[in-house]
Design a protein that fits this description.
Blueprint: E1 5-8, H1 18-33, E2 37-42, H2 52-64, E3 71-75, H3 80-93, E4 96-99, H4 103-113, E5 130-133, E6 140-145, E7 149-154, E8 162-164, H5 172-182, E9 187-191, H6 198-207, E10 214-218, E11 221-222, H7 238-243, H8 248-256, H9 271-277, E12 288-289, H10 292-305, H11 308-321, H12 329-339, H13 349-353, H14 364-370, H15 375-386, H16 394-408, H17 412-424, H18 432-439, H19 441-461
Parallel strand pairs: 1-2, 2-3, 9-10, 11-12
Antiparallel strand pairs: 4-5, 5-8, 6-7
Helix pairs in contact: 1-9, 5-6, 8-10, 11-12, 15-16, 15-17, 15-19, 16-18, 17-18
């Protein structure tokens, strides 16, 4: 194992969203590529918003994505003693001090010294005063970013920022810096919304005499409209994508391509290939676009390449999530076999195969669109052609029905769509010959006969 150590450090204030999932994936790929270690640290110091439910959601999302970790999960809140020890060290060295200034005091100080000047406080021994880190008056704090190169921040513009409240509880930037140092993190890969935090963390690490990690700040994800990714762009969390029927392998592939790519622009990659080819240094600087339509296309490719046994198991799991009674394994496998080329997501499979296990749906739009004048005659002719077919297999079914196209001088859709609606209730299904075969001759003829009666009754009523 190499000396490379990365961490994924989400806050349990909600479900794991798409941007967080990509950050987790990039850290995981970087660690696995270099045979390094990945630490899972849950930054749960916000006790009001950090809940056990949110913690569980994050773990659930990572496990479903099949992103494992080597150490953790570590609770940041449980590291309070380490934070207190580091705080005491800085107070003793003089790198930090207590300051009783209120927000109004700081505002008044800035009005006197100029808005661009960072606040410098007055040390006090007063109990209950906040603790601030001393920031140099001159010079710059430089973030040597892996993706962006050096990014300089003038020290004079920074306040002597608060690292602990009066009650001793530490603030985010202090806790993160201490945790990264004590956990031996060598590389921090995170969203560029954290870039403004990095100078403060570097200043804390310098005051504690710790070697800083290397930083890579990833461009944030945008929707197809170019705006920051949000709920309005569709599924926002890993769980929502799972419920929508995406495969974890397809999601890993797609997320990896949001900002990173190969020299040869390969699109479909196995996870092993992603691990082999991924390098943080190759991530682009521009915001990446999350487009669920592209994810859906990629997911469809992955689904079609699954062995039927794995495909059937994935569909069964999806049905369980949706509260649908899972058919017997052999029957579900046979149904999946005719839908595999059609469905783009697992959630699309059941609507395609439901007609094999339940009566046809009643879709008025499909009926109105397909059942035109003469459809009853076509269906009666189709039933007559299908009745003697043995074996009732797709090739034999097609051979029996094809002559009707010439006999009635109609295009394929004019004949096959009424049959499709008759046996499934929908104008969308797997291949019509495969659907008839899977349904079986007896049920197919029964449903066609029922549809002919309905059409005849409608004509009489008219």
């Amino acid at each position: 194992m190499s000396d490379l150590r990365l961490r994924f450090a989400p806050s349990p204030t909600g479900a794991l969203h798409i941007g967080g999932a990509r950050t987790a994936l990039y850290n995981w790929l970087a660690a696995r590529h270099e045979d390094g270690a990945l630490v899972l640290r849950i930054e749960d110091t916000d006790r009001e918003r950090s809940t056990e439910e949110n913690w569980d959601q994050i773990i659930d999302a990572l496990e479903w994505l099949e992103l494992d970790w080597d150490e953790g999960p570590v609770s940041q809140a449980d590291r309070a003693d380490s934070h207190a020890a580091a705080l005491a060290q800085l107070l003793e060295s003089g790198a930090a001090y207590r300051d009783a200034a209120t927000a109004k005091d700081v505002e008044a100080w800035k009005a006197e010294h100029g808005a661009g000047s960072g606040y410098r406080g007055t040390p006090t021994e007063e109990a209950g005063a906040a603790i601030r880190l001393r920031v140099p008056d001159e010079g710059e704090t430089v973030v040597d970013d892996i993706l962006r190169g050096p990014v300089a921040f003038p020290n004079r513009s920074y306040d002597d920022f608060v690292i602990a409240r009066g009650d001793g509880s530490v603030l985010y930037n202090f806790a993160v810096a201490v945790d990264d140092a004590e956990m031996g993190i060598t590389e921090v890969v995170r969203g560029d919304d954290h870039l403004s935090n990095t100078p403060k963390q570097l200043l804390v690490l310098e005051a504690l005499d710790h070697q800083p990690p290397r930083y890579a700040h990833l461009p944030l994800l945008h929707g197809p409209d170019g705006k920051k990714l949000s709920k309005r762009h569709g599924a926002a969390s890993v769980q929502e994508l799972r419920e929508a029927g995406y495969l974890p392998a397809a999601l890993r592939n797609y997320l990896a391509l949001l900002g990173w790519g190969t020299d040869d622009d390969t699109t479909l990659m196995s996870t092993a290939e992603l691990v082999e080819r991924f390098r943080v240094e190759d991530v682009g600087k521009a915001a990446a676009i999350f487009d669920e339509k592209k994810l859906r296309w990629l997911n469809g490719r992955f689904m079609r390449e699954l062995p039927l046994k794995e495909y059937t198991a994935a569909v069964a799991a999806q049905l369980e999530r949706e509260g649908i009674q899972v058919p017997a394994a052999a029957e579900l496998s046979a149904a999946c076999a005719i839908a595999q080329e059609k469905a783009q997501t697992l959630a699309e499979v059941w609507p395609l195969i439901r007609f094999l296990f339940e009566p046809p749906v009643d879709d008025p739009k499909a009926w109105k669109k397909v059942m035109k004048a003469g459809s009853g005659e076509l269906l009666e002719a189709a039933a007559g052609a299908l009745a003697p077919v043995e074996p009732f297999e797709p090739d034999q079914i097609e051979a029996a029905l094809a002559p009707l196209l010439a006999e009635f001088d109609v295009k394929a859709g004019r004949l096959y769509q009424p049959i499709r609606v008759a046996i499934t209730g929908s104008s969308v299904s797997p291949g019509i010959f495969e659907s008839l075969s899977a349904l079986g001759k007896e049920r197919s003829l029964e449903r066609i006969a029922t549809t002919v009666k309905r059409l005849t009754s409608a004509e009489l009523d008219a």
